[in-house]
């Protein structure tokens, strides 16, 4: 299953429908991009090649891992290419040889250079996980959840030289459930997006679908996640902290200090709290329920957490095993 930078790899798959135009080069890396690749293949579009990020070390053992898109492409017996850069002559030669009519991009992870955008006659199309122009950037689903949005969606757009600034082909909306996490929402949006890409490709091919420019004055950012985004500030309202817990697990994780060790807060529920005298971060345990005081009148029920160097446990088991003292608190992790 290994490949060189520009060497195709094949696996075992079965095409279920006849090939149809246009000739597509698919660019994707993460699990979010797998449903679209699968739908393009099953619908019968000609996929000249799948371009994905190079294999890299991952996990505690730092074993070299292939991307989810590479694994799916191998299964479907599609040619796989993993250029280390899109900015050199080797990359240009690769794409010229593949001769795409259309490039479809989903969660690839790098900005496409201008020469590549000009190469295919039908241009390059991207699937983005927000309702553009809201949440442009690397982490649109995370920031929609972290900011407590009630709805989001997916858009197909024409790629230009900006960051998610190109004109939009189509959008589809969906509500965000109050306790829905980013992994759950991402899975739903990926499936929605796959359907939308199929419809968009058909419209672009037939010339019946025109992209509409975005209103740039309404744009909001969705920057790449950093470790500091997961630091819990117990002075914030419980609902806002709850939204961050939903948004930032598993990465970068929502964390607090307990007895000097970093503790990951994994699942929570916002509640009201009558005791307005407790300081933010104060731990309250009643009837095997672990609550942490937040902004005045609010608290966070901790359903699951992971103490440093230990396995995840329920809030009740943590409270029982830690033998909490009456004055103990969760503190804020230092932002380094």
Largest sheet: 7 strands, mixed
| CATH class (first level) name of the largest domain | Alpha Beta
Can you tell me the CATH topology of the largest domain?
Answer: Rossmann fold
The residue ranges in which pLDDT falls below 50 over 5 or more consecutive positions are 9-20
Question: What is the strand tally?
Answer: 15
End-to-end separation: 39 Å
- CATH-defined superfamily of the largest domain: Formyl transferase, N-terminal domain
Secondary-structure content class: alpha/beta
List the total number of helices. Answer: 8
Q: Give the neighbour order of strands across the main sheet.
A: 5-2-1-6-7-8-9
3D shape: elongated
The mean pLDDT is: 92
Describe the structure.
The strands form three sheets. This protein has a seven-stranded mixed beta sheet. Strands 10, 11, 12, 13, 14 and 15 form a six-stranded antiparallel beta sheet that branches. The protein has a two-stranded antiparallel sheet with strand order 3-4. Helix 1 packs parallel to helix 6 and helix 5 packs antiparallel against helix 7. The chain is α/β, with parallel strands linked by helices and 336 residues long. It folds into two domains: 20-218, Rossmann fold (3-Layer(aba) Sandwich), CATH 3.40.50.170; 227-322, Methionyl-tRNA Fmet Formyltransferase, Chain A, domain 2, CATH 3.10.25.10. The chain is 25% helix and 26% strand.
